[in-house]
Amino acid sequence: MKKLAGYKEEIHSCSKCGLCQSVCPIYKITGNDCTVSRGLFIMLKGLIKGELKMSKKLNRYLDLCLKCGACTKFCPSGIDAVEIITAAKAEYFKKHPFEKVISFVQKRLIFGLGVNLMGMFTKNIKGKTFDKKVIYFGGCGGEVKGNKSVVTLLNACGIEVITPHFKCCGIPLYVRGDIDSYLSYKESFIKIIEKYDIKDIVTTCASCEKTIKGYNIEGLNVKNIFEYIKENELKLSLKKPVKVTFHKPCNIDNFQDIKWILNNTENLEYVEMENFDSCCGLNGISKLNEYGIMYKIFKNKHNNIVKTGTKTVLTSCIGCEIALNLFSAGKYRVFDFTDFIAASTK
Fold first, then answer.
1. Contacts of residue 121, Cβ cutoff 8 Å, sequence gap at least 6
2. pLDDT in tens, 306-332
3. Which residue from 282, 224, 301 is spatially nearest to 67, judged by alpha carbons?
4. Are residues 209 and 239 in the same domain?
5. What is the predicted pLDDT for the residue at 123?
6. Looking at the domain assignment, is residue 102 inside a domain?
7. Boundaries of domain holding 313
């Protein structure tokens, strides 16, 4: 990632068309132009020119960004707003010690000690041996849940699963602007996969998948598990009829593979919710001082789920799974796509 000043041309290329306003979850709630990429770019341009200082107020607007990437997908100029906002966060991170304290707690206690302690009670299975082999990156969720679901489904596809012990992919630290810690996780990942003559990586978490692809490691083939299921046209049949809906995480690009599985699994009725691909607001969990704004985003998603009449919600991001379960109010349960399919299949 470049320093913020290195994005001067990209920021200047913003045409101020306002398309980002039509898709930004935060702007839809606040109506404040400072919370959308167009307004943020104006402030960041002033920061680069020295007309503004990196203040707590500016950082608040940077923090409100959910990193969902909706503005980037709709930007006619092709500007990667998330990358630029993260570069600005990195500038703030370097100059403010309290940000480093929060990052330390995340890295050492939550994604370090916390995941390792819970992982001590996790049982991984070896599975069957096949010529085709993949390395399973479980991420924080996988380290806690184990590899049984992944091994069960991929073995059924004729694929052997290797399960090393990985650390977090680093995405929570990356979006905080702690780039050095993020790079340390990347280096840890590289050292582990170098022990194997395998270039295929499978994960079940959309955020982990996007992060590892962002490592830009030459020759590495990173896929979510549903891509393997679709490629092998694995026939799935649930033990009993179930009606489900699906929340599409922001970091999934090929939802058509998931939809194929949902529509071709016996005893599974898929009901598509309104705005199934809108952000759940996960980043808002850590922004308790902005609870009012974030709750409205969660509430919109919650209402759309309830309208489907289903009691079972599937997703493929550990963060989305946790966030949606927190706000379910007992009206439905949210499951990881892989865990649910593996546990419910005959």
1. none
2. 999 999 999 999 889 988 998 898 999
3. 282
4. no
5. 73
6. no
7. 235-344
